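**User:** My hope is that you can spare some time for a protein that puzzles me. I have put the entry right below:
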Amino acid sequence: MSPDRVADALGVGRESVFRWKRQARSGGTEALRIKKAPGRPRRLTPGQEQTIKAVVRDVTPVRCWARPLCCGRGRWWRW
């Protein structure tokens, strides 16, 4: 299967497919395993993150760009 077809099937770019191929050639299948991301550990629990996402999604107002005449210019409205 061509790299283009693999990329399309997986929803990734061609470069990702070529990178995976290089990694497999140099380090075998072990090189393709998901590694822990570097950086500082998370401070929020998964439950806290979900709560924040829900609050932002449900409470954040939407800027009315499509209807300036009915909503008024520069006003914030909740749909």
